[in-house]
Every structure is written in C-alpha cells, then in structure tokens.
Write a structure and sequence with these properties.
Length: about 220
Amino acid sequence: MLTGNLMQWNDARGFGFVVGDDGKRYFLHVSEIARIATRPRQGDRLRFEPALDREGRLVARKAVIAGANLAATRDTLRRGQPKAGRRLEWRYTLGLVLAFSIGVGVLEGRLPWAVLPLYLIMGTVSFLLYRADKRFAEEGRWRISEAMLLACDLAFGIVGGLLGQAVFRHKTAKPSFIAFTLLIGFVHLLWLIGFAAGWIQASDLLELAKTVGSV
C-alpha cells in the first residue's frame, strides 16, 4: 500500500487524482474508495494500492481515506433481518418488454421489417456509447454528452441504451437522466403498442413522411 494526498477531485463526475508519496500522479475513481459517511474532498490523506490500468496508466485501487468514518454497509444495516431476494434491474425488464414487442410486431406483420434492423443497429450504437462514456469517466477523459446518449436512445437505440446502463452501471443515479430514459422507453412502448393494436399503420407513416417532405 502507498500513501498520498487527494490533490484534485470532481465530485459530480466521481473521480480525481492522487499524488502519492512517491511523487507520482494516480487516477482515482469513486468506486475504488472504501465506503465512508462523507464525500471525498480535495486534500484528503489516503492509503491506496498503486496499479496500472489496461492502457498502462497509473491508477489507485482499494483507497482508504485517513480519519474518515466508515459508512455502514447494507449487510451491516440488515444484520439480523431476513435476507431479501435479489431485485430485478428495471432496465432489463423494460428492455426485454420492448425487444419482445418489436419481435412479435415484426413476425405478425404489424411492424415493417425495416424496423428490426433499425432497432438492432441503433441499439448496438447506443450500447457502445454507454460503454465508451463509462470508460472515459473512469479515465478522466472528455465525456460523451448526455444529450447525445439520450438522442441515440430516442432514435431507436433505446433497447441497447437500457442494456448499456444496466451492464456498465452507468447513468443510473442521476434522477433527471433516469426520468428522460423512462420517458423515451415508454414513448417507444406506446409506439409499438399502437402498431400491435392496429392504431398505427405503416402506410400512415409513409403518408406523413411525404407530407413532411413536401412542406
């Protein structure tokens, strides 16, 4: 273990940099800090395990802030209580419902076949964007804007976006982002229900596109 000082900390983005007693600069992500009752602050003294990331850069692992009060873990708070079952991540559930609706709609001929590759391609793009933004956050690099992530979800990438959020545990704590994600998910769900119920026809969309194009 090595000791050092937290010389830079971005609390909103959950990362900062430690200058170790060896004079080297280490990247530190909030997930590597032992649970504490307060947020990390610039100037904190800490112990950590020096390591290298996949690209060979210096990072701090298993950091413990000196003098910090450790926060009680969930297991400690539940000690003596019956164990609860594992909670199902709602993003998986919503993504599965959307994927099922798309598949059934296409197979029953209520959705145009072109919709399937559209959702697949944009879903893959959205998933990869969340993975990249998570990595950028961990490495302290320039981030992908939230507007771009949400726009990709809206543009038929919602299934991949939900999967990316759940798999990488990214953008899962900010209330406004969660609200927009839910809104986009339900907009797509209503759109798919409209096709399944026959309220929306492919011919109607073509006529609408022609009308918009002629304006």
